[in-house]
Amino acid sequence: MKSKSLPFPITSNQSFYEALGDWIGDVFYDILPEKGLELRDEQIFMAFQLEQAYKNKSVIFAEAGVGTGKTIAYLLYAVAYARYTGKPAIISCADETLIEQLVKPTGDIKKIEQMLDMEIDVRLAKSREQYLCLKKLDDADKRTEDEAIEDVYLQLPEFVYGAGSMSSFYPYGDRKEYPYLDDEQWQAVNYDSLQDCLSCDVRHRCGQTLHREYYRQAGDLIVCSHDFYMEHIWTKDSRIREGQLPLLPEASSVIFDEGHLLEYAAQKALTYKTSLQSMEKVLSKLSANDVREKTLHLIDSILELHDDWFSLISASADRSSERMKIRKTDQLIKTSAALKKSIDQLLEELVFESELYVIDEYDLKISEEYLETVLFSLKLLAEDDNAIIWLEESFDDERLVIMPRMVEEILREEVFSKKLPFIFSSATLSVDEDFTYLASSLGIDDYTSFTVESPYEYDEVMKISIYLENPDKTDTISKIVNQNDGGSLILFNNRDDQDLFRFTNIIEHKQLLFEGDEEISSLVEKFQEDAMSVFASLNLWEGLDVPGSSLKHVIVDSLPFPPDDPVFEAKRNHAADPLTEVDLPYMLLRLQQGVGRLIRSSADSGHISIFLSAEEEQWIPEINKILPVTPEIIVYD
Q1: 272-403 CATH pick, 2.40.128, 1.20.120, 1.10.10, 2.60.40
Q2: CATH class of this structure's domain 458-635
Q3: Phi, psi (5° rounding) for residue 612?
Q4: Contact 119, 175 (CB under 8 A)
Q5: Coil, strand or helix at 473
Q6: Which residues make Cβ contacts (< 8 Å) with residue 462, sequence separation at least 6?
Q7: Which pairing describes strands 272-275 and 632-635: parallel, antiparallel, or unpaired?
Q8: Which SMART domains match (predicted)?
């Protein structure tokens, strides 16, 4: 990494922070207005609040409405401080969509480069699942006749299999390079936890490895997702013990863009997972080696017992949400103990098998690591009453997920105890300017905060309608979309509602896009390019930035209350008043974000439609408090 010079001079009688403050003032009061940008009091106020967070190396919640220029404000500090300390700043975004929007040619980083005539060294560090796995691609290509998978294979650079020179290596394999794959196809060829990258024979030609080596050398900024940042935190110590580098280098500061979503990324990262099919895949590969008959019999016994174990899990699952709560029956505990005993025996046999050198080293390492994960999951299931356990179903597989404890404890110890500037940036971090819900969820005990409103005149550019007790909601949404003279975004709170709309809508003569049908940034690009298209989404309540006529109407299918699943049940169990401390703040924050998708520039205008069920009418007073304009109430008889 080559350190770059500061973007401002420091005189002999100045500290870094004094010179930084002078430069920030010059940028906002002189340079940016000269370049045609409007001087915004909200942006300047935010900038000087951020200076205190950097000076004190503390946590700050920077809640700034749409149009305040918050991204430019935090970028200026992040780059300057990175160059001062010689360590890159990490910008952690809610998802891959936000990452792409931050670094796009019309994004704020490019604007700063052009307006300040400076070159910013920014590199992307995406989640491992966002990269192609050569091992899985080989397997998938042998097992399927899917032309899309074959196209991925043909798209590989020549050096992957030794045909190109060593000097021709370059990063490849990013999910964005294969927009034609839907989510199910991508999961057949992308990285997953069953891959042992350290012992993989093609790791030095792997796209993920090449990307990692590249972003480590960033001089100014590393942009990653919340998922990847939390995976870095969760795996850092174990990677160091194994002689590996952590996923991310040491940072000068960390900015959480759309930071209210960090908790959910932490929940996803800090879990143990085992699936119905994974055990069969792992042990089938193992049994294909020249192992002893005793080991083969033990493998067959474990596979049979594992199937019985998953059958019991599935039978005891509450299927009222995507995260299905597991009821710990006596039979389930008994079968868990039997499975644990058999796996312990197999691990002992594998020690003996390894001494005979009859098992492929890669297969052996994968098997041992996976079996150790299953053992720990079995231990948590049987012995830890505080563990949060649920079942997930995806495509043709079932997966048991176990979270050992509440994430705020880990975040408090592993993240926010560090003496670093931690900046949370979003238009929605509080409920009625109260940051307690977010701070307590993340284990943050000491912080500063501020709120600045959006400079936009919402009364003049936005109309909101709330529909009550509508028996024909899908038909009404279809009519709204068909009558709209611009693009429409439909936000769903669960997959069942999205699937129902997919098969019952009556959208005429408009391109209809569904999240999951292609790589997400390619869908966003299609939506932005077609001003009459319709985008149905589960996850774009935040992060979508589509100014202009491509987004003229945001439709909220139902209030985004948290699901009735084991994770939120654990949060509710730790709250004195679960409704007001967990459910309602979550819903209001998410609804604010959804409403914020509409007006993205001073030239935008449009309509918001929110559908409420009869039991949700009671929340209209709370909803009114967080809406930028007074809604029209439409009641159906």
Answers
A1: 1.20.120
A2: alpha beta
A3: -120, 140
A4: no
A5: helix
A6: 598, 599, 605, 606, 607, 608, 628, 629
A7: unpaired
A8: HELICc2
pLDDT tens sequence across 377-394: 888 888 877 778 888 887
What are the tokens at 124?
Answer: 């992307």
Domain boundaries, the chain: 16-126+409-452, 129-217, 272-403, 458-635
| Residue 387 near residue 405 (C-beta atoms within 8 A) | yes
- DSSP element (H, E) containing 362: helix 361-383
The structure's pTM equals: 0.78
Chain segment 458-505, per-residue pLDDT in tens: 999 999 999 997 778 888 999 999 988 889 999 999 888 999 999 998
Secondary structure string (H, E, C) spanning 250-315: CCCCEEEECHHHHHHHHHHHCCEEEEHHHHHHHHHHHHCCCCCHHHHHHHHHHHHHHHHHHHHHHH
Beta partners for residue 62, in sequence order: 425, 450
Phi then psi for 36, rounded to 5 degrees? 100, 5
Q: What is the distance between the alpha carbons of residues 279 and 281, in angstroms, rounded to a whole number? A: 5
349/343 Cα distance (integer angstroms): 10
**Beta-bridge mates of residue 513:** 535
Report CA-CA distances (Å) from 47 to 103, 452, 490. Answer: 21, 11, 34
